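User: Sequence recovery, please. Input:
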């Protein structure tokens, strides 16, 4: 179910920083039409640190009603509070998502044993598949392969979004956990190479702005068409880089707004993309063929 190019969807907001449910519905429709293989609601790119539990529930409800049964839906239900992650996971399961994406606890820097216990309790509360999410560059916490192997024994934990960009790390996870364990890239610049190493897809930032191209590139990689996958990835390479000229999701929200899909809205403490960085993002969009 969870394969291909899955988008870590931005959360549309008004200029005042309020969630825009109408624009969110339109985005969901667009991704379905563009061939996006899965949608993550309320992940890092969706501004999960500042989206409230009630707002997440509303977004999940809209997604289930709009594209449920047509596109696999994941909800980001992680927190640095185990109790909060358990509560958000239960709520998302009740609302009808196909799976949950649970990030490592951030800021409080747990041990590997703490991570094992945290994810085990969250998975105990889940009635849908759980995908672990490791992004140490943002969280200050690294879920090591040995701990992933321990967690893979839990019946609800089916895979991991590995965002280190380390191909050797991905290969070690697959070696430890077996081919039935789902490995997804969380790093757009290296995702094609991770798929070639055995991953089943990517949860992508770039797919917010280039959903059809990301779908085609990952599908080519999954089919073993290295030449086509490389050609498309080269076309997207500048965009992969440009979408991180400031902290994600600042550049990608600007790019999606430039495409006319959302308004210029973001929630503090994040701010709109600085003018000096807009030209390189626009140039990368042009290189990918997204704008004139």
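Assistant: Recovered sequence (292 residues):
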């Amino acid at each position: 179910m969870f394969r291909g190019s899955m988008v870590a969807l931005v959360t549309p907001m008004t200029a005042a920083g309020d969630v825009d449910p109408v624009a969110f519905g339109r985005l969901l429709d667009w991704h379905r039409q563009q061939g996006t293989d899965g949608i993550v609601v309320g992940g890092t790119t969706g501004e999960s640190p500042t989206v409230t539990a009630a707002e997440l529930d509303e977004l999940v409800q809209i997604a289930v009603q709009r594209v449920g049964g047509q596109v696999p839906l994941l909800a980001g239900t992680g927190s640095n509070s185990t109790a909060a992650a358990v509560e958000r996971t239960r709520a998302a399961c009740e609302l009808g998502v196909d799976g949950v994406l649970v990030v490592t606890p951030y800021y409080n820097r747990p041990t590997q044993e703490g991570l094992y216990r945290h994810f085990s309790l969250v998975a105990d509360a889940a009635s849908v598949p759980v995908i672990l999410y490791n992004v140490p560059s943002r969280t200050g916490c690294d879920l090591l392969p040995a701990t992933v192997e321990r967690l893979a024994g839990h019946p609800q934990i089916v895979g991991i979004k590995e965002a280190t960009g380390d191909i050797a790390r991905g290969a070690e996870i697959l070696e430890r956990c077996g081919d039935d364990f789902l490995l997804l890239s969380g790093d757009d610049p290296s995702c094609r190479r991770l798929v070639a190493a055995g991953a089943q897809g990517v949860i992508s930032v770039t797919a917010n702005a280039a959903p059809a191209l990301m779908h085609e590139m990952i599908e080519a990689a999954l089919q073993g068409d290295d030449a086509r996958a490389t050609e498309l990835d080269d076309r997207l390479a500048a965009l992969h880089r440009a979408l991180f000229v400031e902290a994600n999701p600042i550049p990608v929200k600007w790019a999606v707004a430039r495409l006319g899909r959302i308004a210029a809205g973001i929630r503090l403490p994040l701010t709109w993309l600085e003018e000096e960085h807009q030209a390189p993002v626009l140039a990368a969009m042009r290189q990918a063929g997204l704008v004139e």
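The mean pLDDT is 98.
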